[in-house]
Amino acid sequence: MEYATLNNKIKMPMAGIGTFLLSPDEAESSVLSALGCGYRLIDTANAYVNEKAVGRAMKKSGVPREEIFLETKLWPAFYEQENAVEKTLERLDTDYIDLLLIHQPAGNYVAGYRLMEKAYKEGMVKAIGLSNFNENQIKEILDICTVKPAVLQTELHPYSQERKLKSFLDKEGIVVQAWYPLGHGDKKLINEPLFSKLAEKYNKSNAQIMLRWHIQSGNIVIPGSKNPEHIKANFDLFDFALTDDEMAQIAAMDKQKRYYTSTPDMLKSYARMVPDVDGQK
User: Fold this and answer.
1) pLDDT averaged over every residue in the chain
2) Which residue in 103, 69, 105 sits closest to 220, CA to CA?
């Protein structure tokens, strides 16, 4: 495993498993499979409505809690609930969260960030950060925070490399984490001839080449999967390295093409949406 060192000296694995769009049963099975393969980073969220399942998988795995880097995200509906972090801990059945993020720049996200700062100072959370924030929104948090965000989770892949944003984050000491690291499963991206050529050279899959590019670019990756073989393959990234020339060739693929872009109306709808976190299995 390779690690990123966060701005508060916490070490975070560079590769983990995501649980977006997984049902509770699927999330429990995938996390158990991932932990059995050696994964130690798990990503979930209030809005995924599978935190209880993730907590069960962690317990069933037999992996000591201190070896697991657990990450979850607060949803806008809970930003102004004083006990939102405590309730999240209860669902995950754990005493602490390694990384807690503001999920969306919607609703009263400054209040949500204040909640996270309080939880950080009280030891319930080891690090805090942001998800889906743009540069101006990050600057807004930097202007008011007492605990600096350690991580930004955002869409990143070879078609959307966000060089300007990454340069800003680097100057601020904020580590970037990629969701949609494989481009939302876009076959055109995955089957790019360059990836096929490199996959043959290194005896890897096209997806493994893309994930290795992320890691060497400093992007933490959390691909999700329900398939045990894919889960295992998505972690088999640490026995080879791309050359500087190969990294440059992939960098040249940037089209600034995103698969997700939020709008003001979408953010308003997020602020109104209340996930059924209490009714989850």
Assistant:
1) 97
2) 69
Q: Which helix (H) or strand (E) holds 141?
A: helix 135-144
Q: Give catalytic residues, as residue numbers.
A: 48
CA distance 190 to 207: 6
Asked if residues 271 and 77 have their Cβ atoms less than 8 Å apart, the reply is yes
Q: Are 48 and 23 in contact (CB under 8 A)?
A: no
Count how many residues are written for the chain. Answer: 281
What pLDDT, on the 0 to 100 scale, is given for residue 170?
Answer: 98
153-183 burial code (b ≥16 CB/10 A, e <16): bbbbbbbbbbeebbebbeeeebbbbbbbbbb
> Residue 107 — pLDDT band, cuts 50, 70, 90?
very high
Q: Other CB atoms closer than 10 Å to residue 249's CB: what's the count?
A: 15
Residue 185's pLDDT is 87
What is the average per-residue pLDDT within 120-148?
A: 98
Distance in angstroms (rounded) separating the CA atoms of residues 35 and 55: 12
Is the distance from CB of 79 to CB of 104 less than 8 angstroms?
no
**Tell me: the pLDDT tens digits for 84-96?**
999 999 999 999 9
DSSP letter (8 states) at residue 125 = B
